[in-house]
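lol forgot to send this yesterday, sorry. struct tokens for the thing we talked abt
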């Protein structure tokens, strides 16, 4: 668990520089287990590079990791990382996407981009996205550490796709986590070594915008029903600010964990629920 001064230090860094690094934040045993399981998934599902300029011709990406077993459930809620993300966005934030990014030898640098550049808001703006990269191997300049442009999160535009920019490598030891404001200009680095660079991209967004991966359909319902209460909320089974995401004025998590069908979702019109069982929604406060 991070103390409040440490969290504030990271929040100050994100506000000033657009990023922060949580050094050796993750237990080595979890890192090893993730490395092993990602290799299993790659083998079992025969995952190969996508071969486009953004995803890379020598980069293996596995998406939607929460659908692949309980091991991945520890990532979005990790108490050495989530408090920083909650400070950048707010506690109503959501899992936007969870994927692995394994950059193999010979990969060239990814075009510099901002993760929020498809969101049509004038820049600079408050963070709508806060992303993180878990280093499952050491991240070095030579093996393709994420390249970042400090301070670019306050630029009044996103980068031009494919243009060259001066950037620095976010070097960090295995087990560390890079956290950044979604407007920060960055990209995966070139891997000039003989070894793979492995990262997990744990991406979050504000509770009031759309998630990049559709968590409610992408994760089987019975899998999501077994998540911890906090993870369910982060996946979108919750209500933002007492309004956004409701179903007939009820928290969607009630439907996730019940056998209700679309027809029975309308039950509140026929039988009102006891006050004590209801979540507080915005209508109850005005
Ligand atoms: O792999 C990396 O270091 C960064 C990847 C990235 O920024 C992306 O794919 O959006």
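and heres what i got for the seq, position by position
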């Amino acid at each position: 668990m991070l103390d409040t001064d440490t969290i504030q230090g990271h929040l100050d860094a994100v506000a000033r520089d657009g990023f922060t690094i949580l050094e050796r934040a993750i237990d080595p045993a979890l890192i090893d287990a993730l490395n092993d399981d990602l290799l299993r998934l790659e083998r079992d599902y025969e995952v190969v590079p996508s071969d486009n300029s953004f995803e890379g011709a020598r980069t293996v990406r596995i998406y939607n990791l929460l659908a692949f077993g309980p091991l991945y459930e520890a990532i979005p809620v990790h108490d050495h990382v989530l408090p920083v993300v909650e400070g950048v966005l707010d506690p109503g934030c959501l899992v936007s996407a969870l994927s692995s990014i394994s950059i193999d030898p010979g990969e060239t640098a990814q075009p510099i981009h901002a993760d929020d550049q498809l969101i049509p808001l004038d820049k600079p703006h408050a963070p709508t996205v806060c992303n993180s990269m878990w280093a499952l191997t050491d991240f070095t300049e030579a093996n393709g550490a994420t390249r970042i442009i400090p301070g670019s999160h306050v630029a009044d535009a996103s980068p031009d796709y494919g243009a060259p920019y001066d950037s620095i490598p976010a070097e960090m030891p295995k087990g560390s986590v890079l956290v950044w404001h979604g407007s920060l200009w960055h990209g995966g680095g070139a891997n000039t070594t003989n070894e793979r660079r492995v990262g997990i991209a744990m991406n979050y967004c504000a509770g009031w915008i759309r998630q990049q991966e559709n968590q409610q359909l992408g994760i089987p319902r019975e899998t999501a029903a077994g998540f911890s209460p906090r993870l369910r909320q982060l996946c979108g089974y919750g209500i933002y600010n007492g309004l956004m995401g409701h179903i007939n004025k009820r928290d969607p998590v009630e439907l996730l964990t019940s056998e209700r069908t679309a027809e029975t979702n309308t039950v509140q019109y026929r039988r009102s629920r006891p006050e004590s069982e209801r979540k507080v929604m915005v209508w109850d406060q005005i």
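The pocket of 2-oxoglutaric acid is lined by residues 101, 110, 115, 133, 146, 186-188, 199 (CB under 6 Å). anyway ping me if u want another try
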